[in-house]
């Protein structure tokens, strides 16, 4: 009989075939397999030829993993030429997972087989109307569940107000392949064997659309939050609002964020999932887009949970229909267009009565913390594989405990009694956290977040609970009201609800802020005025670097310069906005005495902003008249004389105005230069340094008044001063100034 391996499992290949020999040459050369002559890859399904004993990739020889179990003797493409095609197993029964067993009537029917499905469809069950709550979508709110509790399944047929967004009912399995990608590897269930296998989504879609289906395959674990299809689906508002992951999971967590809110389920007729509790005791929302599903629901009473645990650990589990072991198992038909909300811990099986596509998701919440913890501990006792457990369940419980401590403190400060479900949940959480801490002594794997002090957190939570029990807040005992999950008392309900809603709104605001920051992090960043000024200053100084005067006889000639767009990545994204944002600067001895911008629409705001930044940096003269007076009173030539002298050196005979500018260089009334404005440049040796009494202080002290005493400079002032000062301080060592 041939050997084959599943994806992700260890292959029992001979050591010599793996190159595990003492010979160094054999160790160096990896053995090659299959018709493709590739080395062993643990992620690919392989099958062994029973003739040549070589191993082949299933994708290379057209053998899918779920088909391999039906092959008795496998012949590879080379061997089947001589020995004929592979030999298939002979079916002897239709009621056992191993259909090769003899049908002697001695063994019972197993779940998932065709005989089982027929018997299940012929059974009679109590109607789910006894326990089902039918509601309009707009009435299914967080406030309703907090007041009435979330203890029974809810069916919603009128979707308006539920907040659930889905593709149209014409959305097909091929559309799923288009949005998710056909190469995605998925887990499918072979219903007749109740065993899982892996295959590509494209292969499953091909199977689903084929009218001839040799076996029943069911896809129930396609989580698509990381695909393009995620934008087509929005979970119900109540699931989003209550979700622990959405409310409490921090962005900087060491553990990866669990994604369990968006699943696509595609099942063909007669698909069946046996009785189970969703991982971690999560609550579930299901919506049937097209087709139909039948749920078999069992209450999570203590007795039923004990029976379920015993049944799950029994060796003949598949031979016993769990619905027969409890007092009542309810049948709930979910037709197309209906949404079903299943609370924590409900034991359920699902039958697909006709080809169906459904969407669903799981979420943990505060309403049934004790039941969630009980289900998780049951999973541990049953040694459930990590693949079928809620990701990092213990880690999220620590995060929740930290946030609930804050909530209890705020409620106490507001003199509001907390809801009873919250107090009971915190008590159960404290007990679980203590157990996990003790268990960590023997188990090396820890899910305690690094930023949490576990013992201190448990101690503080215990203190808050003790405070509530010894001195009830608001003078009212924590007593459950009829049909309510909040305490009775004077105005406890209203005040508590207001406080909890305020905290929830704060959490939602923080989450929205996180999302906004995430969007800003990936969005093109527009440059600030300070960024523009800094980059333009750097560009101009870089463009105007020239050699000494004696090496450049043409020095002093008119230079036509424009400031280019900022070349950084962020400025490139805002290139259009910077097109007309050219800033003109005139510097004398390293100080800006004149500046302007082409932008007329925002000239005044830009002017004021740049004046403020330059003034803070101590680089801008207070006014034109001040500058002129200070220059004329000093012992060196006036600016007019300097400009005339400079222009004589250049051979320029154009008239000079009273400010030392030629007629073609006149500034407009707004202090803005013309688009094609020319600039004069002078050597620092021609402009003697200012007399000490006329120099501007490099760091002028701030204006002293009562409003500013004892206050730190506003954020950004020091940055402007440092950035501009550093740039222009370096420019003083150059031989050319604007």
UniProtKB/TrEMBL annotation:
Cofactor annotation: Fe(2+)
Major localization class? nucleus
- Ranges for the region named Disordered are 641-721
Respond yes or no to whether keyword Metal-binding is given for this record.
yes
Q: From which domain of life does this come?
A: Eukaryota
SMART domains listed in its UniProt record: JmjC (SM00558), PHD (SM00249)
Quote the Pfam families the UniProt record gives. Answer: JHD (PF17811), JmjC (PF02373), PHD (PF00628)
Q: Which SUPFAM superfamilies does this entry report, sorted A to Z?
A: Clavaminate synthase-like, FYVE/PHD zinc finger
From the Swiss-Prot or TrEMBL record, what is one GO molecular function term?
A: histone H3K9 demethylase activity
JmjC domain residues are: 224-380
Every PHD-type domain range: 31-82
GO BP, one example?
brain development
Q: Which GO terms describe its cellular component?
A: nucleus
Which keywords appear in this protein's UniProt record, sorted alphabetically? Chromatin regulator, Dioxygenase, Iron, Metal-binding, Neurogenesis, Nucleus, Oxidoreductase, Transcription, Transcription regulation, Zinc, Zinc-finger
Subcellular localization is given as: Nucleus
Thylakoid among keywords: no
Q: Which family does it belong to?
A: Belongs to the JHDM1 histone demethylase family. JHDM1D subfamily.
List the protein's name.
Lysine-specific demethylase 7A
Identify the species of origin. Answer: Astatotilapia calliptera
